[in-house]
Amino acid sequence: MKIISALGCMLLYGLVAGQLQIAAAEEIKVYSVAEGAFIMTETIHKTEAEWRRILTQEQYHILREKGTEPPFSGKYDQNHEQGVYRCAGCGLDLYSSKDKFNSGSGWPSFTAPVAAENITTKDDNSLFMTRTELLCARCGGHLGHVFDDGPPPTGMRHCINSAALVFVADK
Ligand code: FE
What we know:
Elements: H1 2-20, E1 27-32, E2 37-42, H2 48-54, H3 57-65, E3 83-87, E4 93-96, E5 100-101, E6 109-110, E7 119-124, E8 131-136, E9 142-147, E10 157-160, E11 165-169
Antiparallel strand pairs: 1-2, 3-4, 3-11, 5-6, 6-10, 7-8, 8-9, 9-10
Fe (iii) ion binds at residues 87, 89-90, 92, 136, 138-139, 141.
């Protein structure tokens, strides 16, 4: 019994330690809309407790728990202003209004990000589907998914949760 409970404690400790472990920052190249050029920046790593402190409950659920907001519920689906959509977690430029189109899906949709470098993709086999997940390249926040049924020029549809974005209108 003692051995089993000791093993249990070690396992629990391992899980807790794993949760607290934060990856080291890494230099990455991203596109800055304000600069009109690629810049170097560091990846952002925070504990889940830190993310909870700086994000709203909705943002936390989408970005850190890979949630999905209900269609037609987000504030940017029908936003037609000109400007840049940044990551709600870390402020990285992600999408431009120039690449936004009305997909009818109920989620803000874009044919492309401001630069391929600003997002990362990951295979997502949840919910009995094979999809490609989109994440912020700097903070790893979940943004949405990309599909190949978009309009020209790319034919891609980046289907993004409004709650993962912060819109900054052009001045
Ligand atoms: Fe981010």
